[in-house]
Design goal:
Mean pLDDT of chain A: 94
Number of strands of chain A: 16
CATH topology of the largest domain in chain A: Aldehyde Dehydrogenase, Chain A, domain 1
Low-confidence stretches of chain A: none
Number of helices of chain A: 15
Largest interface: A-B, 70 and 70 residues
Number of domains of chain A: 2
Largest sheet of chain A: 6 strands, parallel
Strand content of chain A: 15-25%
Oligomer: homodimer
CATH class of the largest domain in chain A: Alpha Beta
């Protein structure tokens, strides 16, 4: 099947899904979870083929051990996956929620309700358990879905896709969730801006950038996470150290990990130095600009746009909250920034003026995450300013529709003075 | 000044605007309105130059009379403009509105609040009164703005821009609202996807399409409005005729005007025929497919993707609600569709399943408009499914920010079992 046909099938099947009564869409999701649970042997057998091939490639040096490590569908992962799909089924109904209700005039009722976006294209790298999680989110929100997985997980993805789409019948055509294979297909799909409504890349920054640069379809996600922790003059030294260490070392490869420690010039000999020492003690390689290198005895030459993704970070000395704002606005990616301070005014200025998706006071940047924010399953984290920003839950897969109910109302009757707009808010 | 410098100035000035206390941003807008009111002579003198040049070009046949007619800044237009800016100033504060509030754990408070998008680029054609209206919306919502107007209105736009930006001092740098001139600048601006966050084109479908095809910046708007009125089997004949005539003739050039009349096969000899006759009587040129041409004695050969923008429309015969859905999904632009029927089930199916921004029952498509919907000033009408859909008010110029306040909270403490997420909804 060619890419356009698959996309058109996803649109038609998505509309069929949206037409289902809520209870049937929920039952369908529980059925998907039960099928994944019941057919574990089949999934594990397919996964074993991918894992064996990956092991050979790691030996041959053509695949990194880190990527290979994300492949195995362990029993624990399958448990989490089944539980996750049941949990998505139990979430409150996202569709048809009334956001606004206005009586425009006598007997003329307007409402704005939530609706599916249409067709989503999700491109993800080796982790195969992403497939059913993403599919469950798309099914919950009434969207058609096209999935493009990594070559490393091809057998696993095919098996997951087979189990999942067989569970859709008889409610929804299997085309509601399409699995696309082959590298050439990606370029074809990215050109379908008349059928595909949103692209969600889940993978490396390089992959996200490549997609952003090669499509006119809106892209939800982020290529970079250059997050800052700012140690203000009035920071509690122990807290500054604990937050900086957590933000950097809890999971250094995460997009919400700290990449740059900003130190208020007035805190250089207090909380700032304490944070630097704590990071060094935790095994973090630090690099500063000329001033911070001299102050703290660390190497200089930091590039403040670097996303290390590792036990390494940049250090800069800045002047107060304004200096921190200027530095992050200039070098940051607008993902997540945190201030550590006991001064309420400084915290307020930072929270109000830092132009990032997530801005924190006395808390680690690692909290920037859909699960930790309580959004349930996470679609991704967006650094864009259009549609959805920051950690995105199922609402990121919704749009709205306006519905108007009248009894023969015309606009020319208003011009003729037969009635007037009243605009009564009923919501 | 080059385009990038202007865009960076707009971003910095937008941040200054966002920093202002709400009352000062409101006062600034009233000051803008008062300046426009007080400096009418200056505005009219500049406008007279454009009108004189346009009159010559109409005589020479290089400008259409329709475009020239939109140029004059009459006293009535200036009145409306001044009143409009005061009205935007009086709207409820759009910034910092709390959309969600969750206690993630003891002493760890998350909130999602509204925030400005950043930098908007608005490209508009000859109507100069659009300039202060758009600028007022951008100022109200704390956004930096770049404006590119039509050559025909160059003197008027310069005068409006001068009056407006002089009223920004001392609160905000004049760069908050940049006026860009020259055709070459548009291509430069459309390439600045790292500084400009949203493009809003206000003009012809051809202009919108050109912009959509030449930028990676998100575009809010619509290139086409191929709207449908569906006369169902159970339609009231007089109502069907009145709604079809209003939808087509009230303002045929509008994007929300009907372009295609869909007639239920079962209504062909009743309400459908009555609607056709009423349209013909109102001077509308109709064109059908083979079947409707034969049924109603009108020319055939209709192209159902045509946006006539004039006293002309297509006619098609379809089978019931499903036929109408299929036709509009295939040929429509997803803007606005209306069903005329007394049958609640048919209306319900149409309202639920028609995948358009606006879906109406027993009301004219002409209601699809921000002012008529009660949104106050209108940014535009979007047929996109990302960010904002349908008539867009000031909310279309907003994004959100997440703010988290803790007292030293770290994620590793959760892993160590020191505390657990509670996720209490406080909103």
């Amino acid at each position: 099947m060619d890419s356009r046909t698959a996309a058109l099938e996803a649109r038609a099947a998505g509309r069929a899904l949206h037409r289902l009564p809520s209870a049937r869409r929920v039952a369908l999701l529980h059925r998907v979870a039960d099928s994944l649970d019941a057919r574990r042997d089949e999934l594990r057998a397919a996964n074993a083929l991918d894992v064996a091939a990956a092991t050979e490639r790691v030996s041959a040096g053509t695949l990194t051990a880190a990527l290979a490590a994300r492949l195995p569908l362990t029993d624990a992962k399958l448990d989490a996956l089944v539980a996750g799909v049941h949990a998505i089924a139990r979430q409150p109904e996202p569709l048809g929620r009334r956001l606004r209700e206005t009586e425009l005039g006598d007997g003329l009722q307007l409402e704005q309700i939530t609706a599916p976006i249409g067709v989503l294209l999700v491109i993800f790298e080796s982790r195969p358990d992403a497939l059913p999680q993403i599919a469950a989110l798309a099914l919950r929100s009434g969207n058609g879905l096209l999935l493009k997985g990594g070559r490393e997980a091809a057998h696993s993805n095919q098996a997951l896709h087979r189990v999942l789409t067989e569970a859709l019948a008889p409610d929804v055509p299997a085309g509601a969730v399409g699995l696309i294979e082959g590298r050439a297909a990606v370029a074809e799909l990215l050109a379908l801006d008349d059928v595909i409504d949103l692209v969600i890349p889940r993978g490396s920054g390089a992959m996200v950038r490549h997609i952003q640069e090669n499509t006119r379809i809106p892209v939800l996600g982020h290529a970079e996470g250059v997050c800052h922790v700012f140690v203000h003059a009035a920071a509690d030294p122990a807290m500054a150290a604990a937050i900086a260490v957590d933000a950097k070392t809890d999971y250094p490869a995460a997009c919400n990990a700290m990449e740059t420690l900003l130190i208020d010039r007035a805190a250089a000999d207090g909380a700032g130095r304490r944070a630097v020492q704590a990071l060094l003690a935790a095994g973090v390689a630090l690099r500063g600009d000329a001033e911070s290198a001299a102050l703290f005895g660390i190497p200089d030459g930091a590039n403040f746009r670097t996303e290390y993704g590792d036990l390494a970070a940049s250090v800069a000395v800045v002047d107060g909250v304004q200096g921190a704002l200027d530095h992050a606005h200039r070098f940051g990616s607008g993902h997540t920034e945190a201030i550590v301070t006991e001064d309420a005014d400084a915290a307020g200025a930072f929270l109000d003026q830092m132009d990032s998706a997530c801005v924190f006071h006395n808390a680690s940047t690692r909290f920037a995450d859909g699960f930790r924010f309580g959004l349930g399953a996470e679609v991704g984290i967006s650094t864009g300013r259009i549609h959805a920003r920051g950690p995105v839950g199922v609402e990121g897969l919704l749009t709205t529709r306006w519905r108007l109910r009248g009894s023969g109302h015309t606009v020319s009757a208003v011009s003729r003075g037969e009635w007037e707009f009243s605009w009564k808010d009923r919501s």
